[in-house]
Every structure is written in structure tokens, then in C-alpha cells.
Design a protein that fits this description.
By secondary structure, the chain is of the alpha/beta class. It is 41% helix and 17% strand. The protein has 20 helices and 16 strands. The protein has a five-stranded antiparallel beta sheet with strand order 2-1-5-4-3. A five-stranded parallel beta sheet has the order 7-10-13-6-14. The chain has a two-stranded antiparallel ribbon with strand order 8-9. The longest helix has 22 residues.
């Protein structure tokens, strides 16, 4: 039995067996002494087939240089948040984000431990998107007047409130120039709709429009996505243009720019200043002609104060600033938007809905609309699903639970002692009520951490990808 295995305690082994992070521990010879269930799921292996096997037996594609565990044993240095793509002994390809640490006793290395998070599916989806974009990029490189991937124009935008009209006027004027644009507004206010409209009213309308949410891709993959990769830059990397190259001549819309890693913000600033991009692992640069339209769901001052947005990048992007008001500040537009969505869903559902009841209109006018226009759209769509075929009016009982139940007025530091606040005063549909509770808890945490998805996910004890799914589900 190795020295590391001899000092391994049952209590510590039990703890690492139940956490939702993959744990792989080897002794100083690179032989596996611990492999938890989460790591077994990530690597597609059975635990009983792993213990006692070397790293290279389990993952033949790895080498002394590419294996972070072996590197930790050889150098005594840790590796943090390293993206690693490898093949297991069954031929399955895995991509994970690994943090690897050498283990010491009395100053000597006795083993190493690796903590892993599976991002295989994310990488696969990301690669599919990039491949599709690359195909489009190749097809349109030598074509003039190629159509861009957009669907919105200024004529599609609905709203008469003074604040919204002011923002719309600024957007229309920005369409006449080539300057960077920064669009700020809460989630669901239509930032991409404005970005597409600016593009389609500009001289770049026949060139590519590429949209990328900076919070939707792990930071370890974001650099390659933005700037492209060179074969051999890292394990699994191939020659592929980034979205800057693919958007050449057109517009690149970067949503949730405040979620971009600070180090990547510095590289983005350099590209914006020089107009040149270098692929990851590459040695040469090439010129790109791209207009940047960026967006944030929090205010610039808040982002700067919390050090999640570089001030120099902000000043470079904020040449034209467009502030989109929340729906609560443009209530005169609610009725217009209701009728617009009813017309749209009448076509989709083949129905003949004429409007909403006075009670529904009153409810909508007094609702807080945390999801803004997107939430209003989903509320109308949800109501259409609840209507009988012959009904023509949307009534209160057709709406989702958040409109028919009393709001949960919880303090930010709500604790289990306040569990009675969650209890309904009358019988109701339990799954719907549980969703309402979950939505309010997530909304509260998101506000507490000022829209930072990573910190919110950590506070809630769930994975970032799981939180992203729930944010979309609840229109937050």
C-alpha cells in the first residue's frame, strides 16, 4: 500500500465521495488511489476499474507534458482552471476544467489531487456553433450582399413612452455612424433587438451580424471563441477563426460584457484599439474591420464600482450610450405590447383572442416585471396555453402563478426560521408554488450579488450552467 493510501481516512474519503466535483487522487507513482463517483461520471469509467491503475492506463492520449496530474508530481506546482481534452481507455473524448495540486508530507511529494468540472457537452455545443459559423463564414467570404443572421429592424420596435423614444432616437442616430455602442438595460428590455436594428439600418447591413453572450461560455473557452485558435495551441485545438474574424466587415454584438473575464477584457480592448486579432497559439496578427455593439444588464457605474468592468474598456465602448428603461418606467406601453403579442400568438395558436380583462390589465399595470418585456411576452404565451378554444379574453386565472399569488416579500437574509413565510394561506397547486418560491429565492440572490451569475450560483450551491437554465426558465 502506498504512503498516500495508508494515511487516507474513511471520513475524508466519504466527504469527497458526495461532493459534486470530480476528484482524482494519485500517489507519487501516478497510480490512482481515489476516484469519486462524480469523476467516474465525467470520465465515463467505473470506479472499481480505476483504483490501482496509472493515469496513462486510464487515459492513453495523455503524456507527461499534457497530464496535469503527472506535471504536478514532476514539478511540485499547481495548475488552476486548466481546460483539458483527453480520451479515456474506452475511446470516449472528455473535456473538463481541472485544478490540480501536488500533495506534500514532510517536504516531499507523496501524490497529487485533481478537481474537475465536466464541460464536455458545453464544448460540443460550442464547437457545433463555431463549425456552423465557420461554414457560413466560408460561404460568405467571397460573396457580396450576403444576408446577415438577423430578424429585427427599427420598424419592429414597439413603444411610445418618452424614455423609450429617447433611447430609440439615440439608436437610430448611432446607425448612421461606425462608432462603438454600449446598450444598458435590465434583462428582457430588448437589447439585442436594438443591436440588430442598428446593424440593419447601417451601411454594414449586408455583412455578418454575430451575437455572443459573454456569460454563456466558460472563461477558459472564451478567448478561443473570440479570437480563434491555432492547431496545437492546447489539447484538442484546431485551426479555426474566432467570431472577430467571422464578423469582419459587419457587427459583433457582445451581450453581458460585464461577465467577461478581466484579463480577456484587456485583450478585447487591444483588439478594439489596434483593429488586429491574433489567434490563441498563433504568431501572426490579421486586421479585422468590426463594429462592436456591447450590452450590460446592470448600470455602468455599478459594474465599475464592483471591478467587473475595466474603466478603459468602458470608455472605449461607451462612445454611444443607449439606456433602455425597464417596463415599470414605460407602463403606457404595456397595452400596446399586450395587443402586439396577442396578434402574434393568435397566428401561432390559430386562435381569435381579442384582448385581456380589466382585472388582468390592472394586474399588469401594478406588477413589478422583473423580466420586463420578455416576461410579458411569456405571460401572454402562457395564457394562450390555458385558454379554451372558444375563449377570446385572457383572464386572471389564465396567467402564470406569479400574477395570481401574493408575492413573497422576503428580506435578503431570509433564513429557515422564516419558513412560515413560504406557507400558502389556502390550498394550491404545489409544483407551481414551489416554482414561485424558487424563482423568488434566485431573484433575491441575483440582486444581492448585483447580477453576477458566478457568485450567485456559488451562493445558491448550484452549478453555473444550472443557474443559467433557471434564469431563462424564470425570465430573470
Amino acid at each position: 500500500m502506498s504512503e498516500l493510501a495508508a494515511i487516507w481516512s474513511n471520513e475524508f474519503e466519504w466527504l469527497l465521495s458526495i461532493i459534486n466535483v470530480g476528484v482524482h487522487m494519485v500517489d507519487k507513482k501516478g497510480t490512482t488511489v481515489f476516484f469519486n463517483e462524480t469523476m467516474a461520471e465525467i470520465d465515463g469509467l467505473d470506479r472499481e476499474d480505476v483504483i490501482g491503475k496509472s493515469v496513462f492506463d486510464l487515459f492513453p492520449s495523455l503524456t507527461n507534458e499534457s497530464s496535469t496530474l503527472i506535471r504536478a508530481l514532476r514539478t511540485g506546482k499547481e495548475t488552476v482552471d486548466k481546460v483539458q481534452t483527453y480520451m479515456n481507455m474506452k475511446g470516449k473524448q472528455i473535456t473538463s476544467i481541472n485544478s490540480t495540486y501536488p500533495l506534500f508530507r514532510d517536504g516531499e511529494i507523496i501524490g497529487a489531487v485533481e478537481l474537475a468540472e465536466d464541460i464536455t457537452r458545453i464544448v460540443q455545443l460550442n464547437d457545433q456553433v463555431l463549425d456552423l459559423r465557420q461554414q457560413l463564414y466560408k460561404k460568405t467570404t467571397h460573396k457580396k450582399n450576403s444576408r446577415n443572421d438577423t430578424q429585427y429592424h427599427f420598424s419592429d420596435i414597439i413603444g411610445q413612452s418618452p424614455l423609450f423614444q429617447q433611447a430609440l432616437t439615440r439608436a437610430k442616430r448611432a446607425a448612421r455612424t461606425q462608432s462603438p455602442v454600449l446598450i444598458c438595460g435590465p434583462t428582457g428590455t430588448g437589447k439585442e433587438l436594438i443591436a440588430q436594428s442598428i446593424h440593419n439600418a447601417s451601411i454594414r447591413r449586408d455583412k455578418p451580424f454575430i451575437a455572443q453572450n459573454c456569460a454563456a461560455v466558460p472563461r477558459e473557452l472564451m478567448e478561443g471563441l473570440l479570437f480563434g485558435t491555432t492547431k496545437g495551441a492546447f489539447t484538442g485545438a484546431i485551426d479555426r477563426p474566432g467570431i472577430f474574424e467571422q464578423a469582419d466587415g459587419g457587427t459583433l454584438f457582445l451581450d453581458e460584457i460585464n461577465s467577461l473575464d478581466i484579463m480577456l477584457q484587456a485583450k478585447l480592448l487591444r483588439v478594439l484599439q489596434d483593429g488586429r486579432v491574433r489567434r490563441v497559439g498563433g504568431s501572426t496578427e490579421q486586421e479585422v474591420n468590426v463594429r462592436i455593439v456591447a450590452a450590460m444588464n446592470i448600470g455602468p457605474q455599478e459594474a465599475l464600482a464592483n471591478n467587473i468592468l475595466r474603466s478603459d474598456l468602458f470608455f472605449r465602448l461607451n462612445v454611444v450610450n443607449i439606456e433602455l428603461p425597464p417596463l415599470t418606467k414605460r407602463k403606457e406601453d404595456i397595452e400596446l405590447l399586450i395587443h402586439h403579442f396577442i396578434e402574434k400568438f393568435n397566428q401561432t395558436f390559430a386562435m381569435k383572442v381579442t384582448g385581456v380583462s380589466n382585472e388582468v390589465m390592472e394586474t399588469f399595470l401594478h406588477y413589478s416585471w422583473p423580466g420586463n418585456i420578455r416576461e410579458l411576452r411569456h405571460a401572454i404565451e402562457s395564457a394562450f396555453n390555458m385558454l379554451e378554444e372558444n375563449e377570446e379574453t385572457i383572464r386572471l386565472h389564465h396567467l402564470p402563478p406569479q400574477f395570481t399569488e401574493k408575492p413573497l416579500d422576503l428580506e435578503p437574509a431570509a433564513t429557515i426560521e422564516r419558513a412560515d413565510a413560504f406557507l400558502p394561506s389556502h390550498p394550491m397547486h404545489l409544483p407551481s408554488y414551489m416554482e414561485t418560491i424558487e424563482r423568488n429565492i434566485i431573484d433575491d440572490a441575483l440582486r444581492r450579488y448585483k447580477g453576477n451569475v458566478s457568485k450567485t450560483a456559488e451562493a445558491l450551491g448550484i452549478k453555473r450552467q444550472a443557474l443559467q437554465y433557471k434564469l431563462k426558465k424564470f425570465n430573470l
